[in-house]
Amino acid sequence: MAQGYSIFIGLVVIAALSAAAWFMSPKGENQVLWRSSLILAIVSCYLMWLITFLAQLHPLIAPKRSDLREEFLGHTI
Length: 77
What we know:
By secondary structure, the chain is an all-alpha fold. The chain has helices at 6-24, 31-57, 70-73.
């Protein structure tokens, strides 16, 4: 089952990957481009995962089963 603390574990992993991209980017005239591109890609992937994860962890609309008959629902629709 998914827990809320996995968000923070992911954040630590992303921070470590970003730090590695910062220090291990190839030296030269394009070093800033390499750093920016790698860190932007890493953060973008994390944000996409985070939004998807949070949308499934706390959905805005509760799912309803449509295959149940009305007398088993306990209330009128």
